[in-house]
């Protein structure tokens, strides 16, 4: 059985003081929920205080990005070794990183490997743009991102990887994919490619999340799909009355 996972991506929101307040308000609701792996991914500046507040709970901390080198003269970058002190997870290849900061499939691949080498769980994001979707390129784009993102990864490490299908046209737009459509991409493209690259059994072990305008009112539709194991939540993860019900929906 794949354990449900819900990760909140806070993006570039929340000062440390705001982060502490939000966590303190969310904790009672989140800690009451069992059988779901919960991850909070604050900005780098809030990782330490958030990690301190979550110590001793079942809630994990994740980072939103990292560089692939363990150390070195890379001004402004954060290494996997630095994150591993406080984080269990790291988001890699988010569409905003690809679109605004020029991240490539090759760079995503190096980051995935570096995360695994430092015992961080990579949440590798894949997804097509609206133009690619409307021109029938979803399969080609998502297949390429999975193949190149996981190329050369040791087969024993694959069950540790989490893949988030985030159609770019659904992120922050209020326009979510349909639950059935997202499940078809995960089952028919992502798991199929994993089966071709590694094995059919491993393809069934990897947890796959949906991300893109997930909210309390639609989360249950996605979680009811057989191949969707949770969600990577953006804006709604900053709202108590959205994020806690989303996690609760994953538990049910």
Polypeptide structure, described:
By secondary structure, this protein is an alpha/beta fold. The chain has a single domain (5-251), classed as Aldolase class I (TIM Barrel). Helix content is 44%, strand content 15%. Helix 1 packs parallel to helix 2 and helix 1 packs parallel to helix 11 (240-251). The longest helix has 19 residues, at 179-197. The model has no long low-confidence stretch (mean pLDDT 95).
Supply database-style keywords.
252 residues, alpha/beta, TIM Barrel, eight-stranded parallel β-sheet, 11 helices, 44% helix
| Percent of sequence in beta strands | 5-15%
If you average the pLDDT, what whole number results?
A: 95
What oligomeric state is this?
Answer: single chain
CATH fold assignment: TIM Barrel
Write the layout of secondary structure elements.
Blueprint: E1 5-9, H1 16-31, E2 37-41, H2 44-54, E3 59-63, H3 80-84, E4 89-92, H4 95-101, H5 105-117, E5 121-126, H6 130-134, H7 138-150, E6 162-165, H8 179-197, H9 200-205, E7 207-210, H10 219-223, E8 230-233, H11 240-251
Parallel strand pairs: 1-2, 1-8, 2-3, 3-4, 4-5, 5-6, 6-7
Helix pairs in contact: 1-2, 1-11, 5-7, 7-8
């Amino acid at each position: 059985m794949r354990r449900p996972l819900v990760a909140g991506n806070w993006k570039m929101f929340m000062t440390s003081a705001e982060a502490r307040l939000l966590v303190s308000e969310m904790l009672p609701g989140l800690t009451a929920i069992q059988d779901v792996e919960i991850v909070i991914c604050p900005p780098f500046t809030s990782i330490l205080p958030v990690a301190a507040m979550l110590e001793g709970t079942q809630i994990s901390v994740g980072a939103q990005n990292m560089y692939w080198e363990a150390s070195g003269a890379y001004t402004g970058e954060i290494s996997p070794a630095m994150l591993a002190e406080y984080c269990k997870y790291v988001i890699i290849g988010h569409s905003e990183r690809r679109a605004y900061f020029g991240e490539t499939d090759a760079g995503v691949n190096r980051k995935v490997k570096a995360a695994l080498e430092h015992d961080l769980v990579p949440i590798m994001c894949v997804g097509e743009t609206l133009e690619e979707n409307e021109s029938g390129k979803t399969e080609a784009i998502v297949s390429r991102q999975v193949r190149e993102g996981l190329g050369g990864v040791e087969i024993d490490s694959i069950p540790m990887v989490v893949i988030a299908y985030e159609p770019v046209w659904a992120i922050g737009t209020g326009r979510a994919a349909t639950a059935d459509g997202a499940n078809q991409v995960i089952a028919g493209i992502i798991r199929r490619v994993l089966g071709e690259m590694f094995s059919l059994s491993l393809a069934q072990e990897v947890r796959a999340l949906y991300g893109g305008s997930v909210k309390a009112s639609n989360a249950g539709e996605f979680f009811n799909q057989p191949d969707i194991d949770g969600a990577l939540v953006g804006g709604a993860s900053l709202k108590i009355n959205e994020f806690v019900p989303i996690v609760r929906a994953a538990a049910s």
